């Protein structure tokens, strides 16, 4: 139609299109509706969850449920779901988890289409050489084609065996950490983190850590508001990658009932704004301050002051991520006499000021238009 302009005209109550002449040289020609520009639907990210015989159900279902919840959240607000979730069977569609649950995958590793994110669960099935070798070989070819790759718990084994983690820092379940470090010396194993991000690779322990890691992936895509809503919905914490010393797993500090400091950790957590000096804690435990220090060194490998600071900064980090309270009010709420003392302690331990920590937590990629 040369340089013809596209115009719309109202004819007999219907829209019709035609080409208007330019400088009188172009003959008008009708244009069908199919020739008009059509709106382009937003592209959904394909997230692939690898399945195999002997997969650990929680490692597969936990992250899958987190991404499913993000789709439900978008649908509840009338938005297009941002993800297409695909279970990918290793060489076959049907597989059975180590707990006996039968699954049927939508695609297999032999015919799967391009994936934005690959999530590899663990499970006893990876102790089978053919399963481990087959998945490692597939990852060696396909991991580099995905934007992100995440391994849950024992899923670290095929990913490390593929060679793509050489020179990277990872984490896994404490039960596997030593063995992974021994079998794959080119991989740096961080033993005290919930989950770790190194470039496009995410790794985590088992259980709730897999859900927390999935929420971090979702936060990258859709922003902190969505991730915080999902964390509340799933009753888990929204943690940054690599978090370790700022948080304490109190369960590992549970001692026998006869231990004089058995109840102190949980009591401290509930009273962070109280006087938690060595003298005050010793009085509560009915021991002298000197003996309390010895007990803490034996049980927790740190002094009472270090232990209290760890818990206070951990709670402060959580509040900085999940609330809009001022830094001064957070400092007071977790027991610091002044905001300046809090800022120095926070920066000394985490390497960031509280303001920088909060800005990073809320500076993830803005929420995608489809999820707004």
Helix content: 25-40%
Any idea of the CATH class of the largest domain? Answer: Alpha Beta
Class by alpha and beta content:
alpha/beta
CA-atom Rg in angstroms = 27 Å
User: How many structural domains can be distinguished in the coordinates?
Assistant: 3
Kindly describe this structure.
The chain has about 375 residues and is α/β, with parallel strands linked by helices. The chain has three domains: about 5-35, no CATH class; about 45-235, Class I glutamine amidotransferase (GATase) domain (Rossmann fold), CATH 3.40.50.880; about 250-360, Homeodomain-like (Arc Repressor Mutant, subunit A, Orthogonal Bundle). The protein contains 13 helices and 14 strands. The protein has helices at about 55-75, 130-140, 155-160, 175-185, 210-220, 225-235, 265-270, 280-285, 290-300, 305-320, 325-335, 340-350, 355-360, and strands spanning about 5-10, 15-20, 30, 45-50, 85-90, 95, 100-105, 105-110, 115-120, 150, 170, 190, 195-200, 200-205. Strands 8-5-4-9-10-14-13 form a seven-stranded mixed sheet. Strands 1-2-3 form a three-stranded antiparallel sheet, with no helix packed on it. It has a two-stranded antiparallel sheet with strand order 6-7. Helix 2 links the parallel strand 9 (about 115-120) and strand 10 (about 150). Helix 1 (about 55-75) packs parallel to helix 5 (about 210-220). The longest helix has 20 residues, at about 55-75. The chain is globular, with a radius of gyration of 27 Å.
């Amino acid at each position: 139609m040369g340089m013809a302009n596209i115009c719309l005209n109202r004819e007999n109550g219907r829209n019709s299109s035609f080409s208007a002449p330019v400088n009188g040289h172009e003959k008008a020609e009708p244009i069908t509706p199919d020739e008009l520009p059509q709106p382009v639907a937003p592209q959904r990210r394909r997230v692939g969850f690898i399945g195999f015989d002997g997969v650990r159900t929680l490692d597969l279902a936990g992250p899958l449920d987190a991404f499913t919840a993000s789709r439900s959240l978008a649908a509840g607000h009338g938005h297009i779901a941002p993800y297409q979730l695909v279970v990918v069977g290793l060489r076959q569609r049907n597989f059975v988890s180590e707990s006996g649950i039968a699954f049927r995958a939508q695609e297999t590793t032999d015919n799967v289409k391009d994936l934005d994110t690959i999530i590899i669960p663990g499970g006893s099935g990876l102790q089978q050489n053919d399963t481990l070798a087959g998945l490692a070989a597939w990852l060696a070819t396909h991991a580099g084609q995905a934007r992100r790759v995440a391994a849950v718990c024992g899923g670290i084994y095929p990913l490390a065996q593929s060679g793509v983690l050489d020179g990277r820092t990872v984490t896994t379940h404490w039960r596997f950490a030593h063995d992974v470090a021994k079998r794959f010396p080119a991989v740096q194993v961080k033993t005290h983190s919930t989950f770790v991000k190194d470039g496009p690779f995410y790794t985590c322990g088992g259980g709730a850590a897999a859900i927390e890691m999935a929420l971090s992936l979702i936060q990258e895509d859709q922003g902190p508001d969505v991730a915080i809503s999902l964390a509340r919905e799933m009753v888990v914490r929204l943690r940054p990658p690599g978090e370790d010393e700022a948080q304490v797993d109190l369960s590992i500090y549970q001692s026998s009932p006869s231990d004089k400091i058995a109840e102190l950790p949980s009591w401290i957590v509930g009273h962070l704004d109280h006087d938690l000096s060595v003298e005050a804690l010793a009085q509560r435990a009915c021991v002298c301050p000197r003996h309390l220090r010895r007990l803490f060194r034996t049980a927790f490998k740190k002094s009472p002051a270090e232990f209290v600071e760890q818990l206070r900064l951990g709670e402060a980090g959580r509040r900085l991520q999940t609330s809009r309270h001022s830094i001064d009010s957070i400092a007071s709420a977790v027991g610091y006499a002044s905001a300046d003392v809090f800022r120095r302690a926070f920066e000394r331990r985490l390497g960031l000021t509280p303001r920088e920590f909060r800005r990073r937590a809320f500076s993830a990629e803005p929420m995608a238009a489809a999820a707004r």
